[in-house]
């Protein structure tokens, strides 16, 4: 029996890769406009890093981590997210000494043992960005403006931005207590999970999708009514800046996020197009995290987008794989020998060229050129070899033009430019 892949861990097949590359390239291009630099961190970290940052009582740490002990009895975990590893690297390499403000981005696989369904996988990919060093709400607005710029650039419009503030260690405990008091009157209506969360992580109850929990918490106190003056001011300035930058948003006071490190601003880019998995991107501010991990007391804010969800929204095959610029249909041994050499020269010159290697008929070779979506074809037989001239056929409209074979590269380039200018 053949060996299959692991449930919830997907292969990204060649027909989808162009879409993935497009999503990644756009991120690199846009993030660098905003001054972000890439950072690459390992896929595996010490388990303790995630327990201390994401929080012991979160779903991720309680039940979703891929943890194992290595041959030296060290507990390691496949990273379930990117923020904690990036902060670990930031502290370890003292990046704050390099610059007071660090803007970093990362791309790569993350691992969570969740129940797989559309848009939710056990190995998934994130494109994330983090800004470390400033707590000015203009930074929050800029990060959200960049996120919104990205969605515009890749052409995903079925999303909307929701923002919230979760307060800080000064004001959140008061709110938490109010929420516990409120929930204590309604424990019977909560699901099993939420009855458990009520004691450890009561804010998560607001996020529960179960109808009973939704109804029971309809009148729950709002975190926004309990912000201290500093958090309140930060949140209203963020809103002002978003308006100034014309970034559309709505406020969702029930958005609590599934990771414990957040303070003040939190946000999600949500969609109605992916069923239960409605967050395509999510993030927020984490002003205490770096100090909590043993680093300097620096504020930070960031987000991560789920690449599978972006690809689902865009359409896995939305972007076609690159097709050949030229297909050489060679007839006879001498022509095939010459075509093979020209093919190599064209490829060295950066042109995508292809030919047939199995001695097929002209008709079959042209069918193959068509299937590959080649922009031009060239039929090469004994006559063409002898005269040094051939007909270059533009596949979009069938137009043929003579070409000097000893200037194949330059003349093909000119024909490609002319076709591009005519949008063919
Ligand atoms: P998160 O909300 O856990 O935040 O994940 C961010 C995004 O990753 C989600 O909105 C979703 O698009 C995608 N995602 C999460 N889990 C899965 C899954 N099982 N399958 C497919 N996609 C998934 C974080 O990870 C934070 N580190 C974000 C952040 C960065 N906050 C500050 N900086």
UniProtKB/TrEMBL annotation:
<dbReference type="InterPro" id="IPR045864">
    <property type="entry name" value="aa-tRNA-synth_II/BPL/LPL"/>
</dbReference>
<dbReference type="GO" id="GO:0006427">
    <property type="term" value="P:histidyl-tRNA aminoacylation"/>
</dbReference>
<dbReference type="Pfam" id="PF13393">
    <property type="entry name" value="tRNA-synt_His"/>
</dbReference>
<feature type="binding site">
    <location>
        <position position="130"/>
    </location>
    <ligand>
        <name>L-histidine</name>
    </ligand>
</feature>
<keyword id="KW-0547">Nucleotide-binding</keyword>
<dbReference type="InterPro" id="IPR015807">
    <property type="entry name" value="His-tRNA-ligase"/>
</dbReference>
<dbReference type="GO" id="GO:0004821">
    <property type="term" value="F:histidine-tRNA ligase activity"/>
</dbReference>
<dbReference type="Pfam" id="PF03129">
    <property type="entry name" value="HGTP_anticodon"/>
</dbReference>
<keyword id="KW-0030">Aminoacyl-tRNA synthetase</keyword>
<dbReference type="InterPro" id="IPR004154">
    <property type="entry name" value="Anticodon-bd"/>
</dbReference>
<feature type="binding site">
    <location>
        <position position="126"/>
    </location>
    <ligand>
        <name>L-histidine</name>
    </ligand>
</feature>
<comment type="subunit">
    <text>Homodimer.</text>
</comment>
<dbReference type="InterPro" id="IPR033656">
    <property type="entry name" value="HisRS_anticodon"/>
</dbReference>
<protein>
    <recommendedName>
        <fullName>Histidine--tRNA ligase</fullName>
        <ecNumber>6.1.1.21</ecNumber>
    </recommendedName>
</protein>
<keyword id="KW-0963">Cytoplasm</keyword>
<comment type="similarity">
    <text>Belongs to the class-II aminoacyl-tRNA synthetase family.</text>
</comment>
<dbReference type="InterPro" id="IPR036621">
    <property type="entry name" value="Anticodon-bd_dom_sf"/>
</dbReference>
<dbReference type="InterPro" id="IPR041715">
    <property type="entry name" value="HisRS-like_core"/>
</dbReference>
<feature type="binding site">
    <location>
        <position position="257"/>
    </location>
    <ligand>
        <name>L-histidine</name>
    </ligand>
</feature>
<keyword id="KW-0067">ATP-binding</keyword>
<keyword id="KW-0436">Ligase</keyword>
<feature type="domain" description="Aminoacyl-transfer RNA synthetases class-II family profile">
    <location>
        <begin position="1"/>
        <end position="322"/>
    </location>
</feature>
<feature type="binding site">
    <location>
        <begin position="261"/>
        <end position="262"/>
    </location>
    <ligand>
        <name>L-histidine</name>
    </ligand>
</feature>
<dbReference type="GO" id="GO:0005737">
    <property type="term" value="C:cytoplasm"/>
</dbReference>
<dbReference type="InterPro" id="IPR004516">
    <property type="entry name" value="HisRS/HisZ"/>
</dbReference>
<dbReference type="InterPro" id="IPR006195">
    <property type="entry name" value="aa-tRNA-synth_II"/>
</dbReference>
<feature type="binding site">
    <location>
        <begin position="81"/>
        <end position="83"/>
    </location>
    <ligand>
        <name>L-histidine</name>
    </ligand>
</feature>
<feature type="binding site">
    <location>
        <position position="112"/>
    </location>
    <ligand>
        <name>L-histidine</name>
    </ligand>
</feature>
<dbReference type="GO" id="GO:0005524">
    <property type="term" value="F:ATP binding"/>
</dbReference>
<keyword id="KW-0648">Protein biosynthesis</keyword>
